[in-house]
Amino acid sequence: SNGSSMTPFCFDCLPPLAGFLAMSERIKFIQFFQALRHVDFINDDVKNNKELAKWAFAVVYTRGFPTPNGDDFRIAPVADYFNHGTETEVQVDYDEEGNCNVYTTRDVPAG
Predict the structure, then answer these.
(1) Does the pTM of the predicted model rise above 0.70?
(2) Cys-Cys crosslink for 82: which of 17, 29, 90, 93, Cβ 3.0 to 4.6 Å?
(3) Rounded distance between C-alpha atoms, residue 100 and residue 65, angstroms
């Protein structure tokens, strides 16, 4: 579970750094949930559904990528599976049209 779903008791059970990071995530979720109230094109039933908001927040927070200039945040399906090792093997980039392009950063043997 991520910080947005944790209770105050959960934070007390974590080591200090983990508790701080989880609490920071919870604060971001609270701000996200409050910001939803100001989005006109989202139905009020959706805006007030906290469980749905937690799911949406988790998807964006765990699956999204910042654009190279840092001005935007995007979700690129499957791209979040790259670079789970200790060494970066692919570079995720976006063209002017918003298309996601993935390039290897080193030679990858066939197979």
Answers:
(1) no
(2) 90
(3) 10
Burial status of residue 107 (CB atoms within 10 A of its CB: 0-12, 13-18, 19 or more): exposed
pLDDT level of residue 107 (50, 70, 90 thresholds) = confident
**Residue 85 near residue 60 (C-beta atoms within 8 A):** no
Which residues, at least 6 apart from 58, have a Cβ–Cβ distance to it below 8 Å? Answer: 2, 4
Mean pLDDT of 53-67: 84
Burial of 4 from C-beta contacts in 10 A (0-12 / 13-18 / 19+)? buried
Alpha-carbon distance of 84 to 55, in angstroms, equals 22
Q: How sure is the predictor about 1, in pLDDT bands with cuts at 50, 70 and 90?
A: very low
Q: What is the mean pLDDT of the chain?
A: 84
In angstroms, what is the C-alpha Rg of the chain? 17
Instruction: Tell me the backbone φ, ψ of residue 2, rounded to 5 degrees.
Output: -95, 175
Q: Which residues pair with 104 in a beta bridge?
A: 90
